[in-house]
Fold this protein.
Amino acid sequence: MKVRIKFAKYGVMKFIGHLDMMRFFQKAIRRADIDVRYSEGFSPHQIMSFAAPLGVGIESLGEYLDIEVLSMDSPEAMRQALNAVMVEGVEILSVNVLPDQAKNAMASVAAASYQLAMKEGSFPIDDLSEKLQAFYAQETIPYTKETKKSVVELDLKQGIYDLGVNEEGAVRMLVNASSSGNIKPTMIFEKFCQFAGCEIPVSDIQVTRLETYADLAKEDGKRHLVPLQGL
């Protein structure tokens, strides 16, 4: 059976990188006595797929992990067994059995929602909501992305699906998180600060991924995003 696990990552665990999280879950699955399926060959490993690697320092309420199991009592029993071996900063939120034809978590990711808040106090920006709307209303939002091998010119506007302020005064955004057009929320905030004339170091911002989405279908040009949990 294919099983999708939704979990939260917060506190000191936000500083643990993706590869270490993979090793953490491999050990946790063994300790929880999950009847996980292993690959065949000379070096068998647990069949496991994470939806979208989370950057170091980012918290999340919507991380996803797919595994394959040979047997299980129930999704709730697996959730409880895994939570019993979790450390502080990682919590299993749900476990769901997937249809046989379901794509793995990584291949399903289309978008993600984020919250950006000041680690201390609130944003020192007057009329934050209005300025965000004006920033988002631009026809294009050019961004120069430098890598070790090349310099790439991007239009961030194409990857921003929603942008605004929530009731707590934090910046919220829904952005492209697919493998072909992944947009980091810090890139958007950097360009917004240039637009608004503010100087706020990214190190002063706490980024939280709220949910990860798949794009089931498009009708009349409209995007139909659903949480990976709901597949």
Notes: The longest helix spans residues 18-31. The chain has five helices and eleven strands.
